[in-house]
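Fold this sequence, please.
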Amino acid sequence: AALLDTPINDAQTEMVVNWVTDSLHAKVTTFIPNHWHGDCIGGLGYLQKKGVQSYANQMTIDLAKEKGLPVPEHGFTDSLTVSLDGMPLQCYYLGGGHATDNIV
């Protein structure tokens, strides 16, 4: 399963991951934040401890470093496609909106 954005902190993110595991019988393996704000990336520390692979717009990575936040592992500039059980999950940077680094 992929998690797109996290709650604001590790404790709430753990609750979401546990719900995915217990209710959906799936394992969160991939994390992609929409942008750098805490309501999107606040629980990344917990996900990293669980070994979840994280991907983000390179601007998100740079802003997370600048702000002293947990930093996603893998960056992209224009687009990203990851495979989840053989299905493509596509993300695109089309320009700033709510945040300068937000993706769709």
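The chain has a mean pLDDT of 96. Residues 70 and 87 are 28 Å apart (CA to CA).
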